[in-house]
């Protein structure tokens, strides 16, 4: 009798699988992974802004990270998993929404929608393309591989020089700024909707979370863009 009752109880893996297949589950995945990526973006920005403190500061910061390879690769693997889950769930939700409305609307008038909302999937895919280029440029060495051989007077990897060399190219800087503008657009909607997906945003708190998303997205945009603009203006050299 106990065995039969136990057999009727759904397994944890079965519940997770059913939740993943549902639209609600995908929204949870998008929200949770989105917040994880949002935290990474803030941390990454704070690390990069150390270039304004001088060569030694940012090179010591970079060497500290590289001195813990196991932890660094664990973080990179986790970040990659977040990116994949975020993209897959986003695409699946977009396809599900499209299947739910197979016939196009008779009018294209936009009601209660924003540019960030309407373009969030496309901005996300373009940001992904930028991430691939950015990693190829500064981390993997597929673009400008000589950057990986830069060394400062103490023998550390000269991240300071690498960033200056990279952003001194106007095309790289313009691509970076465009990607950051799209990231701002993406975050201005995604952060707010993430709170809603997790049931943390109500009608009464909508204005607060909407402003929080827009202000944080703007600050991230300004912080990131300050680096290439300062390099192009020769304020950092």
Would you give an account of this structure?
With 237 residues, this protein is mainly α. The protein has one domain (24-100, 114-232): 3 helical TM bundles of succinate and fumarate reductases (Up-down Bundle). It contains ten helices and no strands. Helix 3 (23-48) packs across helix 5 (69-100). 21% of the residues are buried. Residues 105-112 have low confidence and may be disordered.
How would you describe this structure in keywords?
237 residues; mainly alpha; 10 helices; globular
Radius of gyration from the CA trace? 22 Å
What summary fits the major beta sheet? none
The average pLDDT value, as a whole number, equals 84
The percent of residues in helical segments reads over 70%
Q: How many E strands?
A: 0
For the terminal residues, how far apart are their CA atoms? 77 Å
* CATH structural architecture: Up-down Bundle
The CATH H-level homologous superfamily: Fumarate reductase/succinate dehydrogenase, transmembrane subunit
Shape: globular
Q: What would CATH call the class?
A: Mainly Alpha
Q: Please trace the helix and strand order, writing H or E for each element.
A: HHHHHHHHHH
Strand content: under 5%
Q: How many structurally independent domains?
A: 1
């Amino acid at each position: 009798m106990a065995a039969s009752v136990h057999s009727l109880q759904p397994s944890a893996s079965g519940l997770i699988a059913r939740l993943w297949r549902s639209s609600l589950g995908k929204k949870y995945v998008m929200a949770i992974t989105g917040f994880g990526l949002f935290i990474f973006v803030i941390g990454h920005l704070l690390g990069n802004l150390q270039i304004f403190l001088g060569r030694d500061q940012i090179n010591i910061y970079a060497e500290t990270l590289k001195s813990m390879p196991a932890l660094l690769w664990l973080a990179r693997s986790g970040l990659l998993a977040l990116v994949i889950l975020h993209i897959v769930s986003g695409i699946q939700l977009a396809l599900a929404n499209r299947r739910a409305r197979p016939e196009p609307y008779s009018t294209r008038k936009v009601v209660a929608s924003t540019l960030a909302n309407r373009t969030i999937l496309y901005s996300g895919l373009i940001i992904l393309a930028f991430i691939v280029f950015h990693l190829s440029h500064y981390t993997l060495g597929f673009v400008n591989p000589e950057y990986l051989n830069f060394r400062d007077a103490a023998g550390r990897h000269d991240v300071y020089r690498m960033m200056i060399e990279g952003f001194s190219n106007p095309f790289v800087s313009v691509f970076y700024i465009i990607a950051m503008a799209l990231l701002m657009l993406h975050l201005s909607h995604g952060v707010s909707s993430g709170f809603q997906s997790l049931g943390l945003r109500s009608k009464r708190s909508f204005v607060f979370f909407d402003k929080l998303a827009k202000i944080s997205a703007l600050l991230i945009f300004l912080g990131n863009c300050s680096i290439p603009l300062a390099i192009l203006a020769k304020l950092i050299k």
